[in-house]
Structures
1.
Amino acid sequence: MSDIITIATQKGGTGKTTTAGALGAALTRKGWRVLMVDMDPQANLTFTMRAQDQTHGTYEVLTGKMPAADAICTGPGQAGKPSRTKEKPGDMPDRKIIPASTALSGADLELTAIGKEFRLQEALQPLRDDFDYIIIDTPPSLGILTINALTAADEVVITAQADAYSLQGIWQLHSTIQAVTRYTNPGLLLKGILITRHNPRSVLSRDLTGLIEETAQQMQTFVYQRPIREGVAVKEAQASRQDLFSYAPRNKPAQDYMAFADELLERRQGD
Amino acid sequence: MSDIITIATQKGGTGKTTTAGALGAALTRKGWRVLMVDMDPQANLTFTMRAQDQTHGTYEVLTGKMPAADAICTGPGQAGKPSRTKEKPGDMPDRKIIPASTALSGADLELTAIGKEFRLQEALQPLRDDFDYIIIDTPPSLGILTINALTAADEVVITAQADAYSLQGIWQLHSTIQAVTRYTNPGLLLKGILITRHNPRSVLSRDLTGLIEETAQQMQTFVYQRPIREGVAVKEAQASRQDLFSYAPRNKPAQDYMAFADELLERRQGD
Ligand SMILES: Nc1ncnc2c1ncn2[C@@H]1O[C@H](COP(=O)(O)OP(=O)(O)OP(=O)(O)O)[C@@H](O)[C@H]1O
Ligand SMILES: Nc1ncnc2c1ncn2[C@@H]1O[C@H](COP(=O)(O)OP(=O)(O)OP(=O)(O)O)[C@@H](O)[C@H]1O
Ligand SMILES: [Mg+2]
Ligand SMILES: [Mg+2]
């Protein structure tokens, strides 16, 4: 039975897509069977996984045009791609994704009937035995696409930079999570806050990290021990459409993301 | 007759709010009468301008509950606030803003009647003689709030980081701009692309800046000459709820934003 994890926050640019992609790649490297789901009309994760498809994707699945299994695209393994290290990335297992397309931005207006929040949950149900982890990327909004992703999920991870706007975004998402656990998904767990694009030298970052830790306690959750440091390789890997570990496995953000995946797995055993 | 400028892109975290705030503050310092409009339910600009108000704001204006003039909040002048420089910021003129509130996130579902795209344009019409510039901040989405902001605007400025995801965001917004000029606002001008959070040392930034410049030419627009450099003072000013020029006028991003405002003014004369 797979574990469905949604990465979310309304605050833009906090690393939702980067985190979803890195977590998926880390778990795949550790041998788990992983399905990615791109619920963002920007389709950034779909682009980086080279899985663009305008007719088979999350839009068709949400609007009932096809079952989720038919929309799964197998992104090419990242083997043999130019990467920054001498270390041969080796043959990466194919990574599977249900891609996003621009049609998805119309979903807000199309999904109006009763039960509109449950479309993704129902669609993923038949796939749960085929994967160990299903990881969902979401747009920077609290609309119907993110509500679907929260309703379908077992756990939600919030990404935040250590700054005032991200902190506000955490509180805004928290009230949405409370509504979702009350009306559509009582089992949803807030599985921690991950600090991204971290600049350890800045005083403000340290102050805001402290505030975010206090906030996490108030929400009965936690902050992942190791923030993700800022590193140029992240943008480079995304532009060259490779996962971070194939592109630059020894780079700081890659190490931090591997530590994040390890902590997530440890905490799962503890459940 | 005021000039209405909307700052937009679907890509999250590219500096829309930072740019709207800095441009408003720069024009105010140069003696222009400026009104800010916050169309983002996150209400980040409203927070930084200390103008939170849950009953008078863009939501009430869009849904016809009150005229725009009644929703204008006068943010406190930034005089005398602790700032990083010895230079006394001096008495800043009050800055005016129509604030956002969380109620705004429901606007997508409420604004359904015919003419829903024109609500903001109609509401701002009576104010145009009271201000020289009206600057609109938007959420990271291409939904009805951003459509209203584009329909109301004379010009739109796109913010982008020099990375692959921002470049995709430019193309996505461009097709929305084309639809807006065709159906709701034929006079809308794409008034350039501003590169933000720029890291001049990174090779990728240079490559992507080149690609963005090519894209701008294809869209018959331009990239502002001086990218905005990354600087910690931006987040610090936002957290302490001051405008960038009151907080750290000699800081790199403050200088870059002043150069951006100067170029925008120059190009306006040239029109
Ligand atoms: N650790 C990091 N180091 C350097 N750059 C990073 C890091 N994490 C993310 N970025 C960059 O920051 C930008 C925003 O990240 P990303 O697109 O993952 O955020 P997002 O929350 O998914 O954005 P959106 O709200 O638009 O969906 C991207 O250009 C990405 O490459
Ligand atoms: N030049 C800069 N130097 C350093 N930090 C910056 C700079 N510009 C923006 N930032 C920071 O980057 C983050 C994103 O900026 P901002 O919130 O203005 O983007 P946005 O496009 O408005 O985001 P959203 O899509 O959520 O509305 C903020 O924390 C801001 O402080
Ligand atoms: Mg994203
Ligand atoms: Mg913003």
Note: Residues 164-183 of chain A form the longest helix (20 residues).
2.
Amino acid sequence: ATEKFMEAFDQIRENFVEVFRTLFTPDDQCDLILQDPNDPLESRIDITAKPKGKRPQSIDQLSGGEKSLTALALIFALYLLKPAPFCVLDEVDAPLDDNNLGKYSDLIKRFSEQSQFIIVTHRKVTMAAVEVAYGITMQQRGISMVVPFNFSEWEAAKN
Amino acid sequence: ATEKFMEAFDQIRENFVEVFRTLFTPDDQCDLILQDPNDPLESRIDITAKPKGKRPQSIDQLSGGEKSLTALALIFALYLLKPAPFCVLDEVDAPLDDNNLGKYSDLIKRFSEQSQFIIVTHRKVTMAAVEVAYGITMQQRGISMVVPFNFSEWEAAKN
Amino acid sequence: MRLQSIELKGFKSFAERTVIHFNQNMTGIIGPNGCGKSNIVDAIRWVLGEQKSSSLRLKKMDNLIFNGTQKRKPAGRAEVSLTFENTKNLLPTEFTTVVVTRILYREGSSEYRINNVPCRLKDISNLFLDTGIGSDSYAIIELSMIGDILKDKEHSRRRLFEQAA
Amino acid sequence: MRLQSIELKGFKSFAERTVIHFNQNMTGIIGPNGCGKSNIVDAIRWVLGEQKSSSLRLKKMDNLIFNGTQKRKPAGRAEVSLTFENTKNLLPTEFTTVVVTRILYREGSSEYRINNVPCRLKDISNLFLDTGIGSDSYAIIELSMIGDILKDKEHSRRRLFEQAA
Ligand SMILES: Nc1ncnc2c1ncn2[C@@H]1O[C@H](COP(=O)(O)OP(=O)(O)OP(=O)(O)O)[C@@H](O)[C@H]1O
Ligand SMILES: Nc1ncnc2c1ncn2[C@@H]1O[C@H](COP(=O)(O)OP(=O)(O)OP(=O)(O)O)[C@@H](O)[C@H]1O
Ligand SMILES: [Mg+2]
Ligand SMILES: [Mg+2]
């Protein structure tokens, strides 16, 4: 069991570095470390992340957006080991700036070739990246309903 | 001391209803309730909020954006009792949709007549509402610096 | 396996029978604050077997039944169905289309169905075992989960690793 | 009282001496993720007397001194100054302009100054007593505080009420 876990752990670690470098820059450092290497099945798992030449003493020192991207890199590292048939992302792009919104949607586009992605968002950059969207509204007070939504038509109508 | 607290509590409660109705709609219900009215100085303070004709059994049932607006209404209710000379808001508009972003910046414009507001944001609607802004960048890796920023010029340059 | 559609009726703010199709590789769900987007995510979790009311933002499970508005009475039950195309036979069944249904009645009883045939919750969980999908899956991601991973709340990192490994 | 400007040097990512003016009623601070916006908010808290390292996103206080990059050595100290116009004589001093300064040296010692005259941290806290401004004020608002209010984490609602009342 330990061997099986360590194999998976090493693969996840490799995926983490790869996705992290996609969300930040190709020469950025990050790592996943077993706090107690002698007890892999129970040990805490530590994350180190050093985006863009910075040297934070812990991930707590990172900014709100940097933390979100780091956590997303870890989640997708797990996903790459065992891709689920579909993924639901509920407004995880809220803390991201416009540039990182682009990286987020590029990452999802890449993974959506093997899994279906359902993406809830308020951000226009993300809306522009999805193929099809449904608008949820409450025309009657307190009752939700669905309408089809097309970002390009909606944006054209706004201008 | 109890009397002083109760006076303040009643005023805050009144302010809360007023700000809540500005952020939602004028006929929405909300309340602040002392869980133990016999022990006002120690009692927990409960919040009820019923936006737009809904009847949530507790504020936990509200959406992410509705919860943020409710908490902001409470913070500004306290502020109205004792306005601080300046207020700093760090990306509290992250969970809000475009319509609510407008309400958020209208509320701040109103209060900024008596206090100075420093607003950190990623959202364009909020950027368009502030009079002056400073851009923070890291031209040298890992070192922050400030540049003046003008939303209308930047937007014009983008298009 | 491919997700095809979700159908909600009486589930949280979805008082009326509502169907959303997920034919694309990427489907967006958009709308104003409080309109019901996260309720759809809760519905997906619930029909896949979520049993913790706190994970569904509820104080108790029956709070997920449409609780009425000023103009409309509360619903008597909540029903959610998730329809899959069983491509690659990922699901251990000979059907090409699989519909998973969960119903909660206001008086407290529950029903579970696979292709409209009554079954136990256990049968639904077993259907998805090893697919990476489940109510507790790393495939349903929201901001609070991001926060938990960063603070490693209650060994959440550990648990995610064990699910994937 | 009106805020005029903040000056940072060696504080977190602000290695160089940086001045930001706050003459307007509303001043925006914008920029990409990780560029230093929240660090400015931390600097305001710190110079007003914040003593909890966790409120400044630090494991220990000396982590707030610029810790260097690949191309630049760590700073020997962090210094932040906040300048106020003492309109309406809100601050209990005869000066019309008040500059509050806090310095932390890497070896651990601290300095505090009002208008460049050394003083104790207590003198800075007393200056702002009753103005509604302080490191723990309801006037410095961020998303985590919104979350704490909603969950009423550690009686945070109670404490906010007591500050305002
Ligand atoms: N049992 C129920 N009956 C009726 N309405 C409910 C029920 N449970 C929750 N709601 C309502 O659903 C709304 C929340 O919807 P939801 O969380 O899906 O919003 P959202 O679209 O995700 O919004 P946001 O963008 O702010 O996250 C709340 O206003 C709540 O009152
Ligand atoms: N002592 C320090 N020395 C150098 N850099 C530091 C120090 N402490 C923090 N930083 C860096 O400052 C950056 C965080 O800045 P900050 O939190 O202000 O970003 P932000 O602009 O608020 O971003 P976001 O929009 O994502 O919230 C981190 O990348 C961190 O590495
Ligand atoms: Mg939501
Ligand atoms: Mg920040």
Note: The first helix of chain A runs from residue 2 to 23.
